[in-house]
Amino acid sequence: MIYSKSQHIFKRVAAKKIRHFALDLCFVSLGIRTGYLFDAFAISGLQQRRPALFIDVLASLRQVVPALEDVIILHEPISDQLFFVNFALLEARCARIPGLGDHPRRQDDPHGWPFFVQLSEVPTLVEFPTLIASLLREVCARGEKSAGLSRPIALTITQPLDVVDLVPLAAALLEYPVAYVPADADQTAFLTGVPLDVYDCVVSFIGASDDEAHPEDAREHTLLKFSSPSCLSEQSTGLLPAKVMEALRDRFGPRLNAAEGQWSLACGTRRRHTIEYRSSLGSRHSSHRLAPRSNRY
Fold it and tell me: What pTM, to 2 d.p., does this model score?
């Protein structure tokens, strides 16, 4: 339903891109993941009114897909980022934001938060950023259901944020196990020469045949793609590749089972060495490019 409705709305967008958008939104609506950062396609001539357009799209989809009732759009106006967020799942996770002095991440918590990694010359684990914790609590308070009223369909982040805040915020909302925290807003090169463990978490659709009616992108979908500096496993055993993949299966496996779909989850890792990575801080998607999903090293 989400796919067909979206295809009707975005008539000029390729079917493959609509399918990716629909699947990501479906996973959010079913509570399989907390958030999805829209990056599926550009909207020619309508870039300035993207938030209003997607608010209308979500309102239209809510009328035919009841599971979208708890999904809202979270808009970050400085970077013009649009997150589709399962608010019920976000509230459950926000109840577990660690306080000062708490361990930053419990491995047995299915709603756990990322390992936050300072992008200094030597990558270092740091505590949960206080601004991100405060912002998430504020968003949850503003989106709370009132008696007899539905959730707001959209919220705008009111605090001015720079790339130092946007990158870990995106990672936290998208449920990456690792969230990078730039050293400062002017940082343009990082992880130079640092070996990385690169992870892929892929959902395969059981029963989709290998034929023209089911192209490859319709048989599987990348749920998460992220990286972690290999050296961090010396700071926390939770970042050993085997532990990371176990945590991914423990988190997303039960959610997929609860959604009662015909799918399976596969997690893989590979080690890669980097020469240098430069961010595109001047582009509209700069904060997303720094987020773990887009670390295409």
Answer: 0.82
